Amino acid sequence: MKEKLITSAYPRSGSTYLNQALNLFYYSKDLPNNNRHTVIAIDNNNLILVPFRNPVDSIASWHKYPSRGILEADIKYYIRFYTGVLNNLSKVVLMDFDLFTKDIDYIKNRVLKNFGLTTNKNVTNEDIKKAMLANGKEINLPRNNQEELAQVKEELPNIEGFDKCLELYAQLIDAHEKQMRQ
User: Fold this and answer.
1) Distance CA 4, CA 122 (A)
2) Please, what's the largest Cα pairwise distance for the chain?
3) pLDDT at residue 36 in the model
4) Reported pTM
């Protein structure tokens, strides 16, 4: 395949899952299963697939990731990243985490509509998770840490800037719906 499908995302927004799905759908199995997606597309004016996820879930998940960042910094990063996305919508194909992790055909339909690429491959959610394991991405699979996540989620609304994250998320949803209608 000549054209590369490129992703860029805020951490814990499903980019690893999406990359694995794209690899399974559109790249031949004889190629190494590493991540061939790069943001060099910006220089080439290519479209970039950008997953987005509710900030409560993505920030809490990123905060409980092994890096254990500072929530204020995580919020600022979310704001910077998605402000940049919204300011460059003509270069972006928004991918809703809640849709692409539950409906595999959503991925194929978005790629067909925006890149004109088709695939006859049948890929399931389990196939994607197996590929993540096989490629050393098990850390990106959901973990059973609901109590830890709940604690972080309780803190988020009290942190300066979080309201801006919610505003950006609402704008992302609106922009996604507009893209879906085009």
Assistant:
1) 20
2) 49
3) 42
4) 0.84
- Separation CA 124–CA 142 (nearest Å): 17
Measured distance CA(138)–CA(130) in Å, rounded: 9
47 touches 115 (CB < 8 A): yes
Spell 129-168 as b/e; 16+ CB within 10 A means b.
bebbeebebeebeeeeeeeebeebbeebeeeeebebbeeb
Type of residue found at 98: D
Work out whether the CA dihedral 167, 171, 174, 180 comes out positive or negative: negative
pLDDT (tens digit, 9 = 90+) per residue, 7-44?
888 777 788 888 889 888 887 665 444 444 433 444 45
Residue with tokens 């990123």: 62
* Distance from C-alpha of 35 to C-alpha of 39, rounded to nearest angstrom: 12
How many residues belong to the chain?
182
Q: Is 161 left (phi over 0), alpha (psi -120 to 50) or beta?
A: left
> CA 108 to CA 113: how far, in whole Å?
9
What backbone torsions phi and psi does residue 49 show, to the nearest 5 degrees?
Answer: -80, 120
Predicted confidence at residue 31, as pLDDT, reads 47
pLDDT in tens, 136-168: 877 677 665 778 778 888 989 999 999 999 999
| Run of H or E including 49 | strand 48-52
